[in-house]
Design a protein that fits this description.
Layout (H helix, E strand, L loop, with lengths): L5 H4 L13 H11 L3 E5 L5 E6 H10 L14 H7 L4 H4 L13 H11 L3 E5 L5 E6 H5 L6 H16 L7 E6 L2 E10 L2 H10 L6 E10 L1 H13 L9
Helix pairs in contact: 3-4
């Protein structure tokens, strides 16, 4: 089974700013490149922070109202600091959370979700910027067709990984939702099959109603009971 890595979905090359980039330079970068944020990199190309539209907006929010109306809710201390900033170094969010090119989509999504950020700079082994990945990039695998998902489950999951005989399990995919029916030999195969199907790129959910021929755990319990009974017979309950 193959899973998309971040290097396949990230944006590169990346528009960047320097720590000494001015407010207007950053605003121009965002406008010219139709992006909502830029990584700030040092002289070695290593990201040291991120400046977003929200950081620039703090300055606009701090301006006095032209008609003299009260500001209402006042800006917090951090927002006030950004509002008075003149360079990227003073405006940026730091330290910066980064991703690695070899990460898969799920790992990157978890990092983004836990860190409550909308994008992650991607860095190489030396910490240098090689790309940037956004929320929309992580959703791209879900654009896979139902047919492609079905083919991967039949070929990679059922046949190549689990060795399930052809025709034993039927796969139906609609809008990324996988439904599995049929029968397998051992009960323990079922949760493994579900987990592998959920890990296929583009799968939204997995439902199954699969029967099984035997349960290894139940067989082991029965065998243990027979060995413990006088004369080899099962103990009475």
């Amino acid at each position: 089974m193959q899973h998309r890595t971040i290097v396949e979905v990230m944006t590169h090359p990346v528009v960047t700013a320097r720590p000494d980039s001015t407010f207007k330079e950053i605003a121009q970068l965002l406008s010219d490149n139709d992006v909502t944020a830029v990584p700030v990199v040092d002289g070695e190309g290593r990201p040291v922070g991120v400046v977003s539209e929200a950081d620039l907006l703090a300055k606009a929010a701090s301006l006095p109202d032209p008609e003299g109306r009260p500001m209402g809710r006042r800006l917090g201390r951090d927002d006030l600091a950004r509002a008075g900033a003149e360079t990227a170094a003073a405006m940026m969010t730091a330290p910066v959370v980064t991703a690695r090119p070899g990460w898969n989509v799920a790992e990157t999504a978890r990092t983004m979700y836990r860190s409550k950020v909308k994008r992650l700079p991607v860095v190489d082994d030396g910490g240098r910027l090689v790309g940037i990945v956004s929320r929309s990039d992580l959703l791209r695998p879900f654009l896979r067709s139902d047919g492609a998902i079905t083919d991967e489950i039949y070929h990679d999951v059922l046949r190549e990984t689990l060795g399930i005989p052809s025709g034993s399990v039927r796969v139906e995919v609609r809008e990324g939702v996988v439904t599995l029916t049929g029968r397998v030999e051992g009960r323990t195969v079922i949760p493994v099959l579900e987990r592998l199907c959920r890990s296929v790129d583009g799968v939204v959910a997995v439902h199954q109603s699969i029967g099984y021929t035997y349960d290894a755990e139940e067989s082991a319990d029965e065998a243990s009971g027979l060995r413990g009974a006088p004369g080899g017979s099962a103990p009475r309950r």
